[in-house]
Design goal:
By secondary structure, the protein is of the alpha/beta class. The chain has one domain: 2-Layer Sandwich (Nucleotidyltransferase, domain 5). About 45% of the residues lie in helices and about 25% in strands. It is built from four helices and five strands, in the order E-E-E-H-E-H-E-H-H. Helix 1 crosses helix 2 and helix 3 packs across helix 4. The C terminus is likely disordered.
C-alpha cells in the first residue's frame, strides 16, 4: 500500500495540491494547478501527479458551512472528487476545510507589495493566491493525517 497521499484544496479556478507521507505523518505544499474545462482534464493531471509521487490516496477538502452542514459548494466538491476518484482509481477521503485558507494566509504572511509599496500587481496577487492554495492543501492533508492517527492508534509508528 502506498504511503504517499495527495491533498487537494479545490477552488473555482485553481487546485491547491499537497503531498503527504502516511509513514512520517507529514504534509507539504506541492503545486497549484489551473482547473480544466472538464473534470476529465483535471483527472488526467491529478492521475499523472499521483503516479509520479507514488500516491494511492487523495484527500479533498470539503467546504462545509460554519455550522457543519453541507451547502451547494460541498455538493459540487463531492461531485468533482468522486469523478476524480473514479477516473484515477485513487482512494478518496474528505476532510473538513473550514478556515484553512485563513490559516494558510496567517502561516505565509501577507502578499508582496507593488512598486514603491503600492498595491500588488495582478501577477503578484495571482502568485500569492496560488501559494495560499498550496498551503491550504497542506493544512487539509496534515489535519487528515493527524486525525487518522488519532482515530486509528494502531497506525502510529513506534
Amino acid at each position: 500500500m502506498p504511503h504517499r497521499i495527495v491533498g487537494i484544496d479545490l477552488g473555482d479556478r485553481r487546485i491547491g495540491v499537497a503531498i503527504g507521507d502516511a509513514a512520517t505523518r507529514t504534509a507539504a505544499p506541492f503545486a497549484t494547478l489551473s482547473r480544466g474545462k472538464r473534470v476529465a482534464d483535471d483527472a488526467v493531471v491529478i492521475a499523472k501527479l499521483a503516479a509520479e509521487q507514488g500516491a494511492g490516496e487523495i484527500v479533498v477538502g470539503l467546504p462545509l458551512n460554519m455550522d457543519g452542514s453541507e451547502g451547494p459548494q460541498a455538493a459540487a466538491t463531492r461531485e468533482w472528487a468522486e469523478a476524480i476518484a473514479v477516473a484515477t482509481g485513487l482512494t478518496l477521503r474528505y476532510r473538513d476545510e473550514r478556515l484553512t485558507s485563513e490559516r494558510a494566509e496567517r502561516r505565509i504572511g501577507t502578499g508582496a507589495r507593488g512598486r514603491s509599496g503600492g498595491p500588488p500587481t495582478p501577477s503578484q496577487r495571482e502568485a500569492y493566491r496560488a501559494r495560499v492554495d498550496r498551503e491550504a492543501a497542506a493544512l487539509i492533508l496534515q489535519d487528515d493525517l493527524d486525525a487518522t492517527i488519532n482515530e486509528n492508534p494502531e497506525r502510529r509508528s513506534t
